């Protein structure tokens, strides 16, 4: 994820709202203890997710791919006290760390963590959803999109991470490259949504359900 100039990335980071001490600590512990800490969204995208939740005045949000809980806690911050965020993952060490931080956060009470395969977890979450954040295995992106779209209310948002895949979408080679490129093409041609592909971090597709 090094296709944006470091100085520009740092500048954007510095002029984005602070994430607060708990999320900074979560980020540090993720880097110390979990594999692939680069998967954590971080301050720039985390604050964007919180902003989107606030702008939508969302009350029900679903996340696919919790990891250590950074993006879940970021979005939960934007929810009202009676808001609900469902998030799911299959990786026990990541789930354990996420639970610890959900417990420590004042926003943790809004979060329900569903353990197991995402497609099974999606079935358990009832409509209507105001926003969905897709950030798990890339090969299943279209499956997740199709599974959540009927549950999203009209005017709601599906936000999809890593859609530029470090620039590899320009010349797809392996299975994940092709999966993401095909996902981008499919949703762009889908009349049920209107989309904007943001060049934030590794690419963030914002798809508004008509
Ligand atoms: C990119 S990370 C999520 C990062 C997280 N949103 C954040 O900002 O910190 C992707 C996560 O998806 C999870 N995952 C991968 N395949 C999955 C599946 N089939 N069902 C549920 N979770 C899955 C992985 O265990 C991993 O924790």
UniProtKB/TrEMBL annotation:
Record's keyword annotation contains Transferase? yes
> Keywords of this protein's UniProt record, alphabetized?
Methyltransferase, S-adenosyl-L-methionine, Transferase
Report the CDD domains cross-referenced here: AdoMet_MTases
UniProt keyword annotation of Methyltransferase present: yes
| Cited Pfam families | Methyltransf_3
Task: State the protein's name.
Answer: O-methyltransferase family protein
Q: Which species is the source of this protein?
A: Nitrospina watsonii
